[in-house]
Design a protein that fits this description.
RNase_H-like_EbsB-rel, RNaseH_domain, globular, alpha+beta, 5 helices, RNase H type-1 domain-containing protein, Nucleotidyltransferase, domain 5, two-stranded parallel ribbon, 3-stranded antiparallel beta sheet, 40% helix
C-alpha cells in the first residue's frame, strides 16, 4: 500500500509511506488498511488536519456513513473512526485513480519492498512527476 502526504493548498509532496500490505488480499481490504495506516502515520507525525482521498468509493462511503456490514473489514473501519476523532479536522473523499496517481504508483512500488519505506523531502523522480 502507498500513502502520500501533501501540503494543502499547494499540493506539495511532504512525506510518503510504502508498506508491504498483504498483496494478495481483496482490494477493499487493502484500501481500508491503507486508510488506517495513513491515519496512524499522520498521528505519529503530530499532524492534526487530514483529508484522506481514496479511489475506492465503497470504502469512502462506509467510513463516512458509519455503516459497516462487511465483516472482513468491520474492525478496521471501527479503528478508522476511532482514529479520525483524534484529529482537529479529518475528512474522507473519493478521488478517481488518475487524481491519486502518486499513491497508486507508490502502492505498485511497495509490492517489491522487503520492508516499509518512508521518504521525506527526498523523492524519486517517478514519484514527484506523478503528484501533478
Amino acid at each position: 500500500m502507498g500513502n502520500c502526504c501533501k501540503e494543502s493548498p499547494r499540493k506539495i509532496l511532504m512525506q510518503t509511506w510504502a508498506c508491504q500490505g498483504k498483496r494478495k488480499s481483496e482490494a477493499r481490504i487493502e484500501e481500508t488498511l491503507a486508510i488506517w495506516y495513513a491515519l496512524q502515520k499522520t498521528l505519529e507525525k503530530g499532524w492534526r488536519h487530514i483529508e484522506v482521498q481514496s479511489n475506492c468509493k465503497g470504502i469512502v462511503d462506509k467510513v463516512n456513513s458509519g455503516y459497516y456490514e462487511d465483516l472482513k473489514i468491520t474492525n478496521v473501519l471501527e479503528d478508522i473512526q476511532t482514529l479520525s476523532v483524534m484529529f482537529q479536522c479529518c475528512s474522507f473523499s473519493f478521488v478517481r485513480r488518475g487524481g491519486n496517481a502518486a499513491s497508486h504508483h507508490l502502492a505498485k512500488f511497495a509490492i517489491s519492498c522487503l520492508n516499509d519505506v518512508t521518504r521525506e523531502n527526498n523523492f524519486p523522480l517517478w514519484l514527484e512527476s506523478s503528484t501533478g
